[in-house]
Write a structure and sequence with these properties.
The chain is of the alpha+beta class. The chain has two domains: 136 residues, Rossmann fold (3-Layer(aba) Sandwich); 154 residues, Tumour Suppressor Smad4, CATH 2.60.200. It has seven helices and 17 strands. Strands 7-6-17-14-9-10 form a six-stranded antiparallel sheet, covered by helices on one side. Strands 13-12-11-8-15-16 form a six-stranded antiparallel sheet, covered by helices on one side. Strands 2-1-3-4-5 form a five-stranded parallel sheet, sandwiched between helices. A hairpin with a 4-residue loop joins strand 6 and strand 7. Helix 1 crosses helix 2 and helix 6 crosses helix 7. The radius of gyration is 21 Å and the shape is globular.
C-alpha cells in the first residue's frame, strides 16, 4: 500500500437506509413500503447487493492507499485533496453530483448493480476494479473530459452543473423573468428555463424536446438532431429551452430555444419577489435563491470534469 496516496470512495444511502432513517426501524419501513403497495423484498435485495459492492470495493482500494469513505450528503462541504483518486459507487446521479465538487481530480465510476442500473457514466462493474486500478494509479487509462455549465448570480453566488440548470420558480406557479441572448431580450412567463450541458442533453432536455415535437408534430433540424443524438460531452456550448412559455400583453415567447457559450452567455433577470430558484442536476436543496432584481449569467465553466474510462 502507498501510504501517501489518498483515495476517496463516494457512496450513497440505499432506499432501505433512507426509509429506516425516516421511520426508525426496518419493520416500520416495511410497513410503510407495503402500505404503499411497494415490494419491500426489492428494497432488501437492492441494499444487500449495494452493501456487498461497498465491502468488495473497500477491500480492493485499501490495498492501494489511504481510503476515506464519503456519503453523498457530505459532498457540498467536503474538500477533496488535489492529488486524490475519487471512486464513485453509482448510480449515474451520484457520479454527476460528485463531479461538480471536484477541481480536476479524476473519477473512477463503478456500477454496483448492472442488472438494476444501465449506468451511462459508470463504465466499470465491481469485478473490473481489481483489473483496472493498477493502470489507473499509473495514469494509463483514458480520461474523458466533460463540460460543465456555470451560473453566476449578481450577488456573487455561483453554481456548477454537470447535467443541467433549472431557472424558475420553486412551486407550480409561473416564473417571471427577463431573458437575454446577444442582442435579443424579452420578458417571459413560463414554467422555467432548462440549460443543458452535452452530458445532460440526453436527459431532461431530451424529454422536453420530445414532448414539444409530439404536440406540434414537427421540430427544427437542430432540435431533432439534439433529441436523437444529444451533444458531445465536451461541447463548448450549452443548450437552453423554455418550458411552456406563455405569450400575453406583458410577456413574449420567441426566445425559447438556442445555444449559449462563454462568448455568448445567457442572461436571466428575475422578476419574482419570492420563490425564484436556480438549481443544478435535479438537486433543488442545493439551489440558489433567485429573487427580483438578481441576474443569472449562464455559460460554460472553465473547469472540466474528468471521467476515467
Amino acid at each position: 500500500m502507498d501510504a501517501d496516496r489518498k483515495i476517496i470512495l463516494v457512496t450513497r444511502r440505499t432506499r432501505l437506509q433512507e426509509l429506516v432513517a425516516r421511520y426508525n426501524t426496518v419493520e416500520q419501513a416495511r410497513f410503510q413500503a407495503e402500505h404503499l403497495g411497494m415490494d419491500f423484498g426489492d428494497f432488501l435485495e437492492e441494499d444487500r447487493r449495494y452493501q456487498a459492492a461497498v465491502a468488495e470495493v473497500r477491500n480492493t482500494l485499501q490495498a492501494h492507499g489511504r481510503l476515506q469513505e464519503l456519503e453523498r450528503g457530505f459532498l457540498p462541504n467536503f474538500l477533496f485533496p488535489a492529488q486524490c483518486l475519487v471512486v464513485v459507487l453509482g448510480q449515474d446521479g451520484l457520479v454527476a453530483n460528485t463531479l461538480k465538487y471536484l477541481d480536476g481530480q479524476p473519477v473512477l465510476a463503478i456500477n454496483p448493480d448492472p442488472a438494476r442500473w444501465a449506468g451511462i457514466l459508470m463504465p466499470f462493474g465491481v469485478p473490473d476494479l481489481r483489473k483496472v486500478l493498477p493502470d489507473v494509479l499509473k495514469e494509463r487509462r483514458p480520461v474523458r473530459e466533460v463540460t460543465m455549465g456555470r451560473a453566476r448570480l449578481s450577488d456573487g453566488q455561483e453554481l456548477l452543473a454537470v447535467n443541467d440548470f433549472f431557472v424558475g420558480a420553486r412551486t407550480h406557479v409561473s416564473a417571471r423573468y427577463e431573458i437575454s441572448l446577444d442582442d435579443r431580450s424579452e420578458r417571459q412567463s413560463s414554467s422555467g428555463v432548462i440549460v443543458s450541458t452535452g452530458l445532460g442533453s440526453t436527459g431532461w432536455l431530451r424529454s422536453v424536446l420530445t414532448g414539444a415535437a409530439a404536440i406540434i408534430g414537427e421540430s427544427s433540424p437542430q432540435a431533432q438532431a439534439l433529441r436523437e443524438n444529444g451533444m458531445d460531452w465536451a461541447s463548448s456550448q450549452l443548450v437552453f429551452t423554455v418550458r411552456e412559455p406563455y405569450p400575453s400583453r406583458s410577456s413574449q415567447a420567441s426566445l425559447v430555444f438556442g445555444q449559449c457559450s462563454c462568448e455568448s452567455p445567457l442572461r436571466i433577470r428575475s422578476l419574482m419577489p419570492d420563490g425564484g430558484i436556480v438549481f443544478s442536476d435535479g438537486i433543488e436543496a442545493d439551489g440558489l435563491e433567485f429573487r427580483s432584481g438578481l441576474e443569472a449569467v449562464v455559460d460554460v465553466s472553465p473547469k472540466r470534469a474528468r471521467l476515467l474510462g
